[in-house]
């Protein structure tokens, strides 16, 4: 019964966290225009279906967030969760479209030029923020710091075996969970919230099982409490810090 109550608390925490997370902006991307033409504003359109970006309606109420530009630098709000993007740039009220491109960064940066009434976009995102590798690298770095700190609190600074085990297990579970997210989230009926809940519970169970097998000198109760605490800390604090990296 205690385990069931704990799982209910975890589920409630996930729901609460994601309720607020969905209300927050997803991230930003920077466009720097290398042109003497003054860019006024732009829209960023996103879709997993390339065909949906062939014709853009930037006059409807369903258009994306408009971004005003200063000194040919446009910091646009966009999720970058979808596969394709296309921008519409306004110069003296005249719309100019780009070709369709695939952003590789979680908060990508671009160099752009206007040539022959078309916007040419080139991504210059640092590898730290680019693609799945960049996401996993940043998430793993934050998670290891937080969970090792929790490990020091539970097992002591000199407990080399425990700290090495924490490091080893997280290096396995986090990349797997991160890679699975994009696949599980596409299952019909699975929302982002359900995907996160399913993967977090799976990680919790896998890590607890791993700790009980590798740290047999500690009680299962202590390992359960540590696993729960470490995952909650990395989920809330690590998640917040990861979101902050989207705005750097």
Describe the structure.
The structure is a single chain. The protein has helices spanning 2-21, 131-155, 160-184, 192-214, 220-245, and strands at 28-33, 41-47, 67-68, 73-77, 84-91, 94-97, 109-115, 118-123. By secondary structure, it is an alpha+beta fold. The protein folds into 2 domains: 28-125, Immunoglobulin-like, CATH 2.60.40; 129-245, no CATH class. Strands 4-1-7-8 form a 4-stranded mixed beta sheet, with no helix packed on it. Strands 3-2-5-6 form a 4-stranded antiparallel beta sheet, with no helix packed on it. A hairpin with a 2-residue loop joins strand 5 (84-91) and strand 6. Helix 2 packs antiparallel against helix 3, helix 2 (131-155) crosses helix 5 (220-245) and helix 4 (192-214) packs across helix 5. The protein starts with a helix and ends with a helix. Mean pLDDT is 80; it is low at 1-26.
């Amino acid at each position: 019964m205690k385990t069931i109550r704990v799982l209910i608390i975890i589920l409630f925490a996930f729901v609460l966290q994601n309720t607020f997370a969905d209300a927050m902006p997803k991230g930003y991307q920077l466009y720097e225009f290398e042109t003497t033409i003054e860019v006024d504003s732009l829209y960023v359109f996103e879709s997993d279906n390339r065909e949906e970006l062939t014709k853009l309606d930037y006059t409807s109420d369903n258009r994306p967030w408009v971004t005003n530009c200063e000194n040919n630098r446009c910091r646009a709000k966009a999720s970058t969760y979808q596969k394709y993007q296309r921008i519409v740039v306004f110069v003296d009220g005249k719309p100019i479209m780009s070709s369709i491109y695939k952003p590789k960064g979680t908060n990508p940066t671009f160099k752009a030029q206007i040539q022959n009434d078309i916007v040419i976009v080139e991504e210059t995102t640092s590898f730290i923020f680019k693609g799945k590798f960049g996401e996993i690298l940043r998430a793993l770095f934050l998670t290891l710091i937080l969970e090792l700190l929790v490990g020091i609190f539970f097992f002591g600074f000199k407990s080399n075996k425990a700290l090495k085990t924490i490091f080893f297990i997280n290096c396995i579970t986090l990349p797997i969970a991160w890679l699975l997210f994009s696949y599980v989230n596409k299952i019909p009926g699975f929302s982002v919230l359900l995907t996160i809940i399913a993967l977090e519970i799976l990680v919790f169970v896998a890590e607890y099982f791993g700790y009980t097998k590798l740290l047999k000198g500690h009680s299962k109760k202590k390992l359960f409490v540590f696993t729960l605490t470490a995952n909650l800390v990395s989920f809330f604090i690590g998640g917040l810090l990861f979101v902050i990296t989207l705005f750097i």
